[in-house]
Amino acid sequence: MKFSLLMVVISTTLVIAHLRFDREKVFRVKPQDGKQASVLKDLTQTIELDFWYPDATHDVAANMTVDFRVSEKDSQTIQSILEQHKMNYEILIHNLQEEIEKQFDVTDEVSGRHSYAKYNDWGKIVSWTEKIVQKYPEMVSRIKIGSTFEDNPLYVLKIGKKDGEAKAIFMDCGIHAREWVSPAFCQWFVYQATKSYGKNRIMTKLLDRMTFYVLPVFNVDGYIWSWTQDRMWRKNRSKNKNSTCIGTDLNRNFDVSWNSSSNTANPCLHVYRGPAAESEKETKAVTNFIRRHKNSIKAYITFHSYSQVLLFPYGYTSKLPPNYDDLLKVSRIATDVLSTRYETRYTYGPIASTMYPTSGSSLDWAYKAGIKHTFAFELRDKGKFGFLLPESQIKPTCKETMLCVKFIAKYILKQYS
Ligand SMILES: [Zn+2]
What we know:
It contains 13 helices and twelve strands. By secondary structure, the chain is of the alpha/beta class.
């Protein structure tokens, strides 16, 4: 009996093997006018495109740089349609599978161990959270804020020296599964913060007076899936009623202008908003936690990739937020500070006008909940590697971003002292 059960387990594992992306391509197209934009949108009626930028077909507009992934089979058709309409395009990635393999270009210091210079899978991240608490018991604690659809724990690391309710910043990474450099940054932040306490003047001051809540992986189930099954996965892994398509886009699931557009209502889309606002366990865990600490949390920062942009509210409307001038000023200086390290250029501004309109995002929700400083980072790069940023770029990405986040934290501390 036991033996046959084992056989079943083995054969199921074999059936759902890793998806491969041999010779799949990533195109970059810049539609010059509305007509060319419609050509692109029409393509999606017959061909399955995975939008990398913007997130979905409905956001495609004239003069926007549009990146999408397509199978080898369909790439010929795409090319001839683009040429037929005299559209500007380039092929950013010729063989996606090769790029996936080339991401891992940093060799292990000790094979199989957690490393800040490498992408770490969920198992490594969990044991890392345990180790960091053991190493800095006076500064770091681990809070389980809930669990995921597949019953994985959602851990927030609380970092700071102050007892009780200090002014706090909440940061999350990995809400979108395939944006791997994002969780890498959250781990780096915790590492640098703890390591430089007592050595770096600014960090010491920040940790003496503030609390940082860091959620290193928001979408744990999706992150695991992106490692084990489908590198291009974005949503969580919850089952949808009356649909065989899996998952909700957690960054469309927040209770802010949630049902404003029907564009995100299809469960088969990458940007599916879910059956109701806060329907997902992951979203609920985060909003409950933030609501519980509403009086102390003064800033909310969420990390995505890619495109090198620093965003602030709003996404769901083109109206400007009441403290627009302040948010604009902080973003301008913060992106300047970021560029001092490697001259990496970021643009900045409200989501709706800087990228494209979005509803149900965590950033807008946090702002509406009363947190006056909310930011979203779209980390490196600008599309050469897209979601497949090589590991050799993790450290530089984290170092420059750290400067920027420290500046924002310093600014918040000053505002509320
Ligand atoms: Zn994202």
